[in-house]
Amino acid sequence: MSTTTENLYTRDDAVLGSFAIRPLDPFADAELLHGWVTHPKASFWMMQDASLPDVEREYMKIAAAEHHDAFIGLHEGRPAFLMEKYDPSELELVGLYDARPGDVGMHFLVAPSERPLHGFTRAVITTVMAALFADPKTERVVVEPDVENTAVHALNEAVGFVPDGPVRKPEKTALLSFCTRAQFEAATGLTGASI
Q1: Helix axes of 30-37 and 52-64: crossing angle, nearest 10 degrees
Q2: pTM for this entry
């Protein structure tokens, strides 16, 4: 298992400073995650009533999964967001769309903050997307946020996502959206070299 200090991806934002992504440790990070996923602002994460053991179990399950990974995002060296990536042909969207080779599913959650920074959530999703596209095998990122989550739809559009339409999942009606590498680069101004 990777150590929690091993950064897998780093990016410097001209305004907000350094961002990094490291592996999530289901035990060491469980208490931190519990505070994030049960916060009222995380209602779309659907873990509002989760206990600390529930969070440990959920992230142990992800750690053991073949097609699902979870990461802690850092801002200026401090934990600030959660990132998950998954294979949508194996999880979450099986049978709900025509999967292509190079598709990667993504979830992200920004930690609650007493002092929000202007533009922070957009910098987080930009970092998440840049980290995913840093892998040359990633051709397209697929997301399935709740159709009611208009705030995340706007963020997704800002980094290049194009909605495909609603899909019905067991737990929600989701807005299936896609973002290719070219769409991400056009939306953010980041090029392959800076990803």
Answers
A1: 110
A2: 0.92
Residue partners of 134: CB distance under 8 A and separation at least 6: 9, 195
Q: What is the pLDDT of residues 33-54, one digit of tens each?
A: 999 999 888 777 778 888 888 8
**Residue 159, SS3 per DSSP:** coil
Give the position of tokens 């206990």: 51
As a whole number of Å, the end-to-end CA separation of the chain is 26
Backbone torsions φ then ψ of 23, nearest 5 degrees: -60, 150
The SS3 of residue 179 is strand
- The Cα–Cα gap between 149 and 167 comes to 14
163-187: pLDDT as tens digits = 999 999 999 999 999 999 999 999 9
| 8 Å CB contact between 145 and 157 | no
DSSP of 9-30, one letter per residue? EEEEETTTEEEEEEE--TTTTH
